[in-house]
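In response to reviewer comment 3 from the previous cycle, which asked for concrete evidence that the modeling workflow produces usable outputs, we include below a single protein chain processed end to end. The sequence was submitted unchanged, and the resulting structure tokens are shown without manual editing.
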Amino acid sequence: MITIISILASVAVPAFTGMITRMKAQGTASDLHMALMKTRSEAIKRNTTVKLAVASGGKGWSIYPSAAEGNVLENYTVNGNVTISGAGSVEYNSSGRIAGVVSFGIKAVMGSESAERCVSTSLSGLPKVKKSAC
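The workflow returned the following structure tokens.
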């Protein structure tokens, strides 16, 4: 009986590891998507330029008015073995637009499993999430 349980566990654990890794990548991508929407909304609401900047090491981000970096509107820290790469920041103007297309790569690693997502913005400033690397 114990042998059967250990065989089933050895088959199930790798599947759960892959699922957990994919969920971490997707969760961080969703959080970044919402943060980009908030940054755009704050720029329009405040009628000024607002920036989302990725923290050093790709372990989170901050949102703040470009003219007042000390006035942080939101700080976010990524948990676990998830990193954000690509653009260091994105700046929304008072009309909610950005100067160019920006992409952020998200990679989650757990053991031998890894998962990637890409959060990108169009010129209109609207973000979208892809289930692949950038």
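The beta strands are 50-54, 60-65, 74-77, 82-86, 89-92, 102-110, 113-121, 127-130. We consider this sufficient to address the reviewer's concern, and the full set will be provided in the supplementary archive.
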